[in-house]
Amino acid sequence: MTNPIQDVAGADFIFAIGTNTTESHPIIGLQVKKAVRGGSTLVVADPRKTEVAELAKVHLQIKSGSDIALLNGMANVIIAEDLYNKEFVAERTEDFEAFKAAVEKYTPEYVEGITGIAAASLREVARGYARVKNATILYTMGITQHICGTHNVFAVANLSMLCGHIGKPNSGVNPLRGQNNVQGACDMGALPAVLTGYQGVGLDDVRARFASAWGLESLPAKPGITVGEMLEGASHGTIKGMYIMGENPVLSDPDANHVVHALDKLDFLVVQDIFLTETAQLADVVLPAASFAEKDGTFSNTERRVQRVRKAVEPVGEARPDWQILCQVATAMGYPMNYASPADIMKEIASLTPSYGGISYERLEQGGIQWPCPNPEHPGTPVLHVGKFSRGMGKFNPVEYVAPAEMPDEQYPLVLSTGRRHFHYHTGTMTMRTGALEVYYGTEYLEINSADAAKLVICDGDKVKVSSRRGSVELSARITDVVPEGLVFTSFHFPEVAINRLTNPARDSIAKIPEFKVCAVKVEKTA
What we know:
This protein is an alpha/beta fold. 31% of the residues lie in helices and 18% in strands. The protein contains 20 helices and 23 strands. Helix 4 (67-80) runs antiparallel to helix 7, helix 4 crosses helix 8 and helix 4 packs parallel to helix 10. The N and C termini lie far apart (48 Å).
C-alpha cells in the first residue's frame, strides 16, 4: 500500500475495484465503513454484489475481465472534460501524451459495450474520482489474477497519477495483501528476479554485496522462475526436486489435477508446514514447522509495517521455527548457516537492504515501523511517493483491453470466478481445524443466478456438477442475485470442493499470475 490503513477512513472518495474488502480484509473493511459513515463516497467495481458493494453509493457490476476498459474509460472522461490534475501531470509524470492517445477510443459508450456499465454511470464515477481532494483506490486479486493482471495494475496507476491522487495522505494506490506476511515474503526476495528489498539480481553491485556477506565468490545473475513455471518444469521432467514451505498448491493452484501430476513426477518432494496438508501428503519428506505462536520473528503487513512476533508457547513435538530448519538443511548440504536468533538475522537484513536499513528488534520493541526506513534515526515512511516517485518521474503506461483467455461458448456457457469467504482462509489448512469456524461454515456452495438456475432446472440446495475443460467438482447450488446472469462463484477453501481442478492455468505474460477469476464452465444438476 502506498498509504497507511488508517488513511482509508479519511479519503473523500474510495474506489474499490476487484476487492471483496469487508469479507476478505475485514480490518480494512472497518476503515471503509468508517469512511462511509463519515460521508465519503464509496464506489465498488465487481461482478458480484458483495457486502462492500451493498455499502457503495455506486456499484459498477462489470463483466469479469473488463477492468482495463473501465479504467481507461474513466481516464477518457477525465481528460475529455479537462478534469485531470494538470500541475501534477506536468511536474511529476512522463508519457502523458501517449496515454492520452491510447484512451481516446475508450469513450463511455464504447466501454459500455465491453463492461456492461452504463455510459452515464461511468461518467458519474469518473467525475467523482477526479473532483475530490483525496481519493484512494483499493484492489486485490480481482485485478491481478487475469492474463492482463500487470496491465490492470498499470491502468490503476495511470488513473491515480492522472488526478494526482498519490503521494499524499488519504489517497494513493492500495493493493490489499491477502495473507499475513506475503508482503514480508516479497520484501525478503521470495520473487524470481530480486533479492531483499526488491534489489534486482541482474545488478552487479547488488550481487557483489550479497556474495561478500555470504562468503561466496559470486551469485548467479539469471532470474529464477515462478511457481507455475516450476510446476511445468516438474511435469516435463526438467525439474527433479521441489521444496515447498507453507503452501498448498494441490488446492490453491489452477488446474489442480495437473499440479498433482507434476508433483508426482518429481524424484524428491519436501514439504515444510504446520499441518499435513493435501500437498504434504504427496511428499517424500515432511518437515514439521512451528506456528506463529511458537516462534519469534517479524511480519510485514499490507501497509509495509514491520512488526514483532513473540513466542507464546514452545513448539509441539519435533516442530521447529522455519529459520532453524533452513539453517540445519543448508548446513547438512555443505553450507554452514549459523545465526544465533531471529534478531541476528534481522541485523543482516538491515545491513543488505536499504529499505530495512534502520529496522532492528530493539526499535520494533517500541512498535511497528513502515519501510522504507533507511537508517536508525529515520521514523519510517507512512506515505510513499511524497514529492517524487522512486524512479523520479511517474510513468504513464498505455494499456489496451484484452479479453480473458477462455470465454463462454456453447459447450461451457458460464463464467466461473473464485474467491474467499469471510469465515475461512486460503485452503482451509488452519480454519478447518478450529473447532468453531468449520462448524459455523462447514460446507461450500455454488452461487448461481436465478435466471441461469431456471434454465438448468436447478433449485436452491440441489447438488450440481461444475465442469471445465480441465476437471469437475460437485457441490450444492445456492440461487442468489449476488452473481449476475452468466456468472457462477465459489471459494477455494474446501478440500472436498477442490474448485481449482477447474480453473485456467493461463498466465499473465509479465508477472506469470494465473487467470483464476475467469474460466468457462458448465453446470449440471446431479441425480
